[in-house]
Amino acid sequence: ARRAYLLVFAHTQQDFCIPEVEALLAYFRIQATCSGAIAQAPYVKMEGLALDDSGVLSILSRSIFARYCIELWGHGDSWPACAASVQEGLADKMSRAEVDVPYKFEFDSFGKKLPMDRRAAIIDHLKAVPITGEVSLHHARARYYAIEDYGVPTGPEPRAVFFGRLVGEGQRKLLQRYSLKDRRLISNTSMDPELAFAAANQAHVGPGSAVLDPFVGSGSLLISAAHFGARVWGADMDAAVLFGVGKTTRANAPKKMRGPDENMRATFEQYGLAGRLMDVVVADSKQPCWRRLPAFDAIITDPPYGIREKAHASADDAMEPGKLHVLYKALLDLAAIHLVVGGRLAYWMPVMRADYTADMLPTHPCLQLVANSEQPLTTKFSRRLITMVKLREPAGDAETAAGGPADVRSRLFPPLPTQMGAGAGATGADADHAS
Predict the structure, then answer these.
(1) Are 367 and 390 in contact (CB under 8 A)?
(2) Which end of the chain is more exposed for a tag (fewer CB within 10 A), N or C?
(3) DSSP run (H or E) holding 355
(4) In this structure, what DSSP letter does residue 285 have?
């Protein structure tokens, strides 16, 4: 029988939920379909003839956005309709539930909190479900979820309700473990762990993968890759960040200088991942130092795009206004050369939201777009996580990348009027360069 599961996500980066599930289904080679269970709500429905609890648990073992997943026993626009849905194929559903074990009902909602009398009414609607065992709030072995969705804006009654058996929970706990607040080395552009793990999942990073970040910075993306078992390499032009020297970005650091344990290797040691950090090099990734061969299973990176860090000079100064596309074309060329066939490139790209169209994404004859998710940063500005897969080796040097994003810094920080004087116009110059 075709089983249905409902993934319930944290309401943080909704545009990333379905792409993450699709990436993990492909990574674990699970034949299933996924779709939004209801518009503008943090639910994704998965269905498939071969989909079972073990496959769902595999996805949950990697998902950074999923809170939990239930086997969907019933749903509808009201609890009477949901209860009727539960009765369809109930014997098959109950065959997968633990019987005569301590259990409890959990309640979840979107858009409104559920008072105790509302919860009691829900239980009353579901009393026909033949769950056996004793109720235990603290030692339950079986858990059943009743979920109500009130939409946005909130309505007086739920627009959808769901009921099912809990299968497992996602990896939200990793956000606390890898919190930037406790990390030994951070910089102005250190990637939030939630988004770093999103990139690792999109890139199909796993045990034994060889992963490169050509704009590594403080190593946030490589930490997520190493957590999943990858061997990681990095490159960056900023030696001070790579080796933990110079001024710190921490607000309360004594003397404002980095301490002896404020470096990348110490950070990997902090998480027990030092054995997976292969090397980092000071290099300009537009003129890569790597041998010309397909050596990496994945490239994950957040290139500098001139917002929060100082610019570093390079051979063709891709940070000049209007030349941001040069940097991204070089990145795609690097990926076409150094990824294995089937390897993935996951990178972040800045856009002005009003100007964005899919046509501005850089392209390469050897790379195919597979995912594109937006993280809004302001009403005007966002960045997108772009994922591409390598289809074949380049036929020659003539096969290069094309297109790329327009400059965003000049749009966010337009030049001051010339009549204010050269001194006033230089106010923001120090804040140049990175993501």
Answers:
(1) yes
(2) N
(3) none
(4) T
Q: Which residues contact 417 (CB under 8 A, 6 or more apart)?
A: none
Q: Is 403 left (phi over 0), alpha (psi -120 to 50) or beta?
A: left
Q: Provide the token pair at 278.
A: 């292969």
Separation of alpha carbons 333 and 217, rounded Å: 20
Residue 79 is given by DSSP the state: H
Tens digit of each residue's pLDDT (9 = 90 or more) over 168-199: 999 999 999 999 999 988 888 899 999 999 99
SS3 state of residue 41: coil
Looking at residue 315, what is its pLDDT?
40
Average pLDDT over residues 316-329: 69
Is the CB of residue 302 less than 8 Å from the CB of residue 217? yes
> pLDDT confidence of 12, banded at 50, 70, 90?
confident
* Distance (Å) of CA 137 to CA 106, 190, 356: 9, 40, 50
Exposed e or buried b per residue across 369-400, where buried means at least 16 C-beta atoms within 10 angstroms of its C-beta: ebbebbbeeeeebbbbbbbbbbeeebeeeeee
CB 264 within 8 A of CB 218: yes
Residue 26 to residue 5: CA distance in whole angstroms: 17
Assigned token pair, 120: 């009691």
Which residue, 64, 72, 26, is CA-closest to 45? 72
For Cα atoms 62, 65, 69, give the angle at the middle one, nearest 5 degrees: 75
Q: What is the pLDDT of residue 177?
A: 96
Nearest CA among 179, 187, 410, 182 for reference residue 308: 187
Q: Could you tell me if 414 and 422 are in contact, meaning their C-beta atoms sit under 8 angstroms apart? A: no
Strands of 175-317, DSSP E = 210-213, 231-236, 277-282, 296-301
Half-sphere exposure of 160 (CA within 13 A, CB side): 16
DSSP letter string over 377-428? Answer: -SSSEEEEEEEEEE-S--SSTT---B--PPP-HHHHSPPPPGGG-HHHHTTT
Pairing of strands 277-282, 231-236: parallel
Sheet holding 103-110, edge to edge: 33-36, 43-48, 3-9, 66-76, 160-169, 142-149, 103-110
CA–chain centroid gap for 207, Å, is 18
pLDDT for the residue 320:
58
> Does the model's pTM come out above 0.85?
yes
Distances in Å between the Cα of 429 and the Cα atoms of 307, 326, 426 are: 10, 21, 5
Residues 313-329, mean pLDDT to the nearest whole number? 65
**Residue 86 and residue 398: Cα distance in Å, rounded?**
60
433 closest CA partner among 268, 251, 255, 309:
309
